Amino acid sequence: MPSASTTTDTIAASGLQGLNLSTTAAATVQGTSTANSLAEATSVNGASSGTSSVIYNDALAASGATNNTINADGSGLVSGIATTNSKATAESVLGSSTATAGVVTSSGITDLASLTVDGGLETLGKALNTISATAESVAAAASATSALSGLQQGLESTLIHSGADASLTGIASLLNTATADSAATSSTASSTALTLVGADIDTTTIGATGSLLGQVGFTAAATATNVAGTATATVGVDSSKGLLNSALIDIDAAATLKGLNVGTETAIASTTVGNSTATAGGADISYGIDLHQVAAGAGLTLTAGAQVDSASTASSVGGNSTANAGVGQLVTGMLADDIDAATASLTTQAFLNLDATASSTDGFSIAHAGDTVSKLTGLASGLDLDVLGAGSVTGLAQGTAQATASTVGSAGADLATATVDLTALGVDGLTFDTGAAAILTVTSKLVGNADASSVGVGPALADLTFSATGLKNSSLDSEADATITALASATGSLSADGVAGAASALGDFVAFGLNNTTTNLIVADAIGTVGGTAVISGSLDAATTLGIAIASGDFDATGAAFGSTGAGDFSLDIGGLATIKGQAQATGTVDASSVNANATATSGSLTSGGANGLMSTLIGLSGLNLDGDANGSVLGTANGSFNTTAESVAANATAWSAQSLTGLSALTLNLDGSGLITAIANDTSFVNAHSVGGTATATAQVDAIGLNVASITVGADLSLSAASTISSSTYSHSV
Q1: Taking a C-beta distance cutoff of 8 angstroms, is the pair 211, 167 a contact?
Q2: Which of 387, 545, 538, 377 is nearest to 460 (CA)?
């Protein structure tokens, strides 16, 4: 007779609750709380179930409706450290195994309604969580669930005041793992977290120097292995923020703000007979800093960084495999409304690394790294930054994404699909005013690959979409020098390999160095230097033996683009020497080859064979409306290099390529001094079609213009140079 085993362990802990403290001297408050929950269940003939649950674990928290208040006429030292461990294991030979480990809430310091000290203040809130679930079964299903179902936070306060120097730190660290192993039926592992916050600080006033740190770190992993059934692994952290503020942070002297958020998500699913599904980072949102308002009486140094690495691996011998990494994922360095400071140095960074791998011996394989929603942003839209003196802003969005799918299945449904889709934006919607020199440096960079391989009759599809923008829709007003440097780059490779089925490689590359085409004005009372650079490098290869081969790529790059700010207004107003540059560069290689079927290689359109006048577009500098009180130089360059090849042994080979290049367009220039204008468009295009037993068709279309439409007025000497160079070679050969 089957004999079940069930274990349940439920605990709740708090170091200090409902504190109301007032002292005419110094105050020292230290709270610690440690909660360890363990549930183990084992059975031979029946089901086993182990459940570990921590309802709450807080070092310093409210007691019912009574929050915490601390008032000291002297200095203050307040700390709260909560350490939580929840572990569940379940083992069975013949029955199912279910392990559930969970934490609802945990906090270092929370419900801090008021913390007021006349002297210096040091506050530390730390929440450290470890959650693990392990389920093992030989003859039945195994299910492991590890979850943070509520909120984990280091420090949470409504009001903090310090009359002197203050240091506020909130840290939340999570290790969350789930492992399920079964030889039959199914294995399911789920590692999830709802909300992580390092420091949630509302109204904060500091009378001297202030240092604020909010930090989140998480490692989440799920592993599901099976022999004769399905394997499913899911990992996600819904929301995580390093430093959060929804009111005012007011610091009278020098201010240092840091918000850091670094996480890793790993999902692994493997099985021998059934289907495998691995999902890491679906629809997660991560911020380094999310704040409302900051005022600093002296210098402000702000660092915001968010990085998430999401990886999924799905493998099956006799079934289908699906791997998803970062689908719907958003990573942002900083989101802010208003910052005022005497001087300011802001660094905002976002990193997102995606890796999806799916493999099957007798089934389909699908790997998705990102989708149309997936995005990383260094500095999100909406910040109004006002600096009395000099100010600098550095924005970085850097992402990598790779998807690999392979199958050996022989059926028509045994396809291999690898897709990559990611958007990167360095700085968006910034309003930046300075009383002295202003420096704005922005970089957006994407690197990745999509590889699909199918040995059977199923198709192989490799699809990659990259969109990188450095600076977008931002305004700058400097009473001295201003320097803006914006770079966007997108680099990717695609490979689709088939044997008996079709092979398709589709690549869409967009890079925009500086995109200020809405109503935004850049003003420098002295020297103004503005540059936007866009770089694209793409390589596509589709090859198959029996099926059709299609490789289609589109490459669009714009160095810098400006728009009118209204009737009679200028997009740039420079009081001193003006130097404006826009540079676009693209390199595209597209190859398609088939032994027994048609091969089509298309460069300049995602439509196979080209259609409707579509073409890759490269623009160095466009829409510039510059008013300069002194000398000025304007440079616009567009450089392209494209190689398009189609080859078939027994059928038709079609190679089509089209590009449009403009060095400098729609220029309106008014200079009181001399002017130097340089516009260059260069393109190299090689198109080749080769067929042995069919028709070979090669088509190339290239338009290159150095300078297109300009209105120029200068008060002194003018030097204008515009040039275009096209080197186009088209070959077709049929036996």
Answers
A1: yes
A2: 545
